[in-house]
């Protein structure tokens, strides 16, 4: 049985990997549009891990019982975003069974444990197994602090025999969960408090909005330090920053095809960026704001830019957008 399942998994793994990627891409787009700050990764279980799990678990129906052949991990900024992300998954994908939510376990309040939040779904896309059934995908939802603890403890304790890890070491690792809970609560408190200080948070909110919208075009990881430097200048070229996010979203809806073309030709996957290192701002979320300002108010943008940032960067963006300065 193991040999048969092993051969089948080797054969189908490329399709499973596609299913995981399509599911992750679907959730990235939905999370971006819902303004949920998160990082999403995916994987198809490697063949060795699959076989090892089958052997150790003594499954009677290993193909059906190994439910994490395709996996997606969603890491949100703080614990206040766990439920919104869970709701988004349940609303946008077909859920199989009940979510595995350790936060709701009654009687475990006095224990220090990692609160799992896993959802089994039908994978996005049209990939299907040899028997014609769509693939399932296990989605893990964590906070950044939970993810840090999980990755650290995984390295130290994964698949180790209980007796091989000293009890004081195991206890130390689990004590860290108390700090993780406090960290998550303080991050949430800080994020929510900043909403009440518009003068301090305006640039941050504008950048957050651009990052959410940028994720609907690309999965590229941008440079936050560069974004902060550029957005501090861009906010000076926007007459009404409070109302601007709505204007930016409308601009993107109206010009999405033009934006997709610009990113294809000059963005993070283009030859201009990969081979020549030019048009660096086209690989950044603030590029959306720059393109909108070049369309609506390029003279104001130019006037604010010229004394604070290299003009070559704005010239490149104007070239990518097909306008003259």
From TrEMBL:
Pfam families: RelA_SpoT (PF04607). This is RelA/SpoT domain-containing protein. Residues 42-164 form the RelA/SpoT domain. PANTHER family: GTP PYROPHOSPHATASE-RELATED, RELA_SPOT DOMAIN-CONTAINING PROTEIN. It comes from the Bacteria.
């Amino acid at each position: 049985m193991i040999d048969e399942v092993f051969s089948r998994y080797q054969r189908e793994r490329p399709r499973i990997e596609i299913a995981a990627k399509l599911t992750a891409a679907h959730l990235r787009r939905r999370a971006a549009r819902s303004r949920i700050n998160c990082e999403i990764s995916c994987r198809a279980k490697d063949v060795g891990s699959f076989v090892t799990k089958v052997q150790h678990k003594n499954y009677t129906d290993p193909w059906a019982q190994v439910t994490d052949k395709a996996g997606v991990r969603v890491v949100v900024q703080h614990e206040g975003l766990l439920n919104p992300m869970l709701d988004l998954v349940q609303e946008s994908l077909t859920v199989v069974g009940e979510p595995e939510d350790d936060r709701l376990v009654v009687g475990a309040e006095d224990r220090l444990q990692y609160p799992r939040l896993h959802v089994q779904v039908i994978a996005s896309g049209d990939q299907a197994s040899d028997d014609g059934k769509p693939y399932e995908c296990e989605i893990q939802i964590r906070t950044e602090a939970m993810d840090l603890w999980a990755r650290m403890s995984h390295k130290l304790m994964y698949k180790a025999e209980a007796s091989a890890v000293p009890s004081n070491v195991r206890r130390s690792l689990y004590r860290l969960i108390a700090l993780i809970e406090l960290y998550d609560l303080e991050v949430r408190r800080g994020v929510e408090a900043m909403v009440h200080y518009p003068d301090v948070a305006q640039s941050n909110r504008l950048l957050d909005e651009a990052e959410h919208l940028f994720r609907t075009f690309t999965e590229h990881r941008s440079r936050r330090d560069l974004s902060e430097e550029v957005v501090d200048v861009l906010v000076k070229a926007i007459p009404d920053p409070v109302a601007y996010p709505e204007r930016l979203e409308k601009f993107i809806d109206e010009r999405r095809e033009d934006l997709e073309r610009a990113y294809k030709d000059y963005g993070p996957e283009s030859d201009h960026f990969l081979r020549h290192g030019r048009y660096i701002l086209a690989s950044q979320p603030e590029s959306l704001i720059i393109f909108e300002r070049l369309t609506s108010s390029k003279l104001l943008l130019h006037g604010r830019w010229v004394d604070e940032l290299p003009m070559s960067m704005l010239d490149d963006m104007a070239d990518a957008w097909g306008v003259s300065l």
